[in-house]
Structures are given as C-alpha cells and as structure tokens.
Design brief:
With 120 residues, this protein is an alpha+beta fold. Helices cover 28% and strands 28% of the residues.
Length: 120
C-alpha cells in the first residue's frame, strides 16, 4: 500500500527554519535542556510538527516532553504543549533517568551540590 501526501499549500518556510523558530521559542521560555527535534511535515501537510526533547550533554536525548506546531506559510507558532506540562514531563523524565545522567558527569570533580546540574 502506497500512501501519498497531497499538500494543499506549498511550504513557505523550510524544516530548518521551523526547527530554529521552535528552538528560539523554547530558549526564551524554558530551561536550556529542552530542545527542538527535527521538524516533520504533518500528515495533512498544513503545519510543521516539532517534538520537544529533554537532553543532557554526554547522554543525548532522554525523551519527548511536548510538541510545537509551526505554520508552513509563515514563521508563526500555531500551537504547543502547555509550557508547565513540558516542564512537569521533563521533571518526571529527569527522575527516571537520574542515575544515567549523573553517571555521564562522573568525570567532573565532586561538588557540594547534590546534582551536577540544575533541576528543570
């Protein structure tokens, strides 16, 4: 079975532009460990879908915390997972993967902090 995507509108902004827009949106509203994944055209072809990921240096992507939809015709965000929900999901993922995250910082000198990083 072949599924063909028929777009009603030709995208006026690229996937890279949508990705950059979402990263900027996140950077001014949420902690630096939340970042945009690659932009993908929605199945209807009317918006770019960009997943928001929790990431840590040395570990990489830990999991998805939300999604942002970007218009294909303008550099505008159409919809997004509520910011508080993204933060709460990030906190849960952090707790689930804390050992793995801390292990990635084992090469750092010990500090007085309980965690080698800030909470989300």
């Amino acid at each position: 079975m072949i599924l063909r995507l028929v777009m009603k509108t030709v995208p006026q902004i690229t996937a890279l532009q949508a990705h950059s827009l979402v990263n900027y949106f996140l950077s001014v509203r949420l902690p630096d460990r939340l970042t945009a994944d690659l932009a993908r055209l929605s199945t209807l072809g009317d918006v770019w879908q960009v997943c928001v990921l929790l990431t840590y240096p040395g570990v990489g992507a830990i999991g998805q915390v939300g999604i942002v939809l970007v218009s294909i015709t303008s550099k505008k965000i159409v919809s997004y997972t509520p910011l508080e929900e993204m933060k709460q999901t990030g906190e849960k993922l952090l707790a689930e993967h804390l050992d793995k995250i801390q292990a990635s910082f084992s090469f750092c000198p010990k500090s007085n902090n309980k965690y080698p990083f800030e909470r989300i």
